[in-house]
Amino acid sequence: MRTKIVFSEKCLSYGAWHIEGPNRVKLAHEILRAEGYEFLEPTPASEEDLLKIHDSDYIWTLKKSMVEDPDTPAYDNIFEYAKNSAGGAIMAAKTNGFSLMRPPGHHAGIYGAALGVNTRGFCYLNNVAIAVKHLNKSALVLDIDGHHGNGTQEIFFGNKRVTFISLHRYPYYPGTGAYSESNCLNFPLPANCGEKVYLKTLDKALNMKSINPFEIVAVSAGFDTHRGDLASLALTENSYRKIGRKIAALNKPTFFVLEGGYMGDKNGKDINQLLRGFEDK
Ligand SMILES: [Zn+2]
Predict the structure, then answer these.
(1) Which residues are catalytic?
(2) Does residue 42 have a cis bond before it (omega within 30 degrees)?
(3) pLDDT of 31-66, one tens digit each?
(4) Ligand 1 center to 146 CA (angstroms)
(5) How many A from CA of 18 to the centre of ligand 1?
(6) Does the global pTM surpass 0.90?
(7) Rounded distance, CA 27 to CA 47, Å?
(8) Residue ranges with CB less than 5 Å from ion ligand 1
(9) CA–centroid distance, residue 213 to ligand 1 (Å)
(10) Quick one: which of 130, 116, 125 has its CA closest to 61?
(11) What architecture (CATH level 2) is domain 5-280?
């Protein structure tokens, strides 16, 4: 069965000047529509869902748009946009779909910026964590964005129902993820390491004995690992197809949530390949 894409045009109406702008999602939407995917319109996440992951004071400041930092501007109505994106992740979780929404989420920790950094790296709410918590099932959270998912690590640290695996460029923003701790298995990779090293590392990661039993797989799907993108590991379109096959081989209900990927039309092609690889099985 084809994976459905969760998408709302509402996520395109802010931040056109920012690197994490609407074009990256708009172009991906056009490409995936041309590829014949079916789309689902998300509903916003409830405050109850947000408060299961984030501190209530932080949610209050987000509601008031008092969140200005260099990476996450205090856009008008950012709380609504962030709730829509979190709602997209929840819908993807319920339908084993792919949430093609923004803003992304994996740098957002319990209190906003995760411990040890001053910025939220384009993220306001941790969409993937909110969706995992909503399903309330044991999960393997696989973060293939090129940056370490420090917010997700902070949220799930020590949680025996979750294993967090992250492959990311290091040393790089946000500076965390150099080593594994507790249930958080980190695989730092040098810049532009290339597909061969990447896939070998992914195999190693997915076969770790320390992975807790899990019912579902949640993928923080970032594409800034594409050659020349913000956190390049020199992957190509075809690399994502191979990654998709490896995720499928886990043989568990799976959903995907968009994180990074900043090269216009590349995102859509990479998403298509990831999902085709996932469906090749
Ligand atoms: Zn990233």
Answers:
(1) 107
(2) no
(3) 999 999 999 999 999 999 999 999 999 999 999 988
(4) 5
(5) 15
(6) yes
(7) 30
(8) 145-147, 222, 224, 260
(9) 27
(10) 125
(11) 3-Layer(aba) Sandwich (3.40)
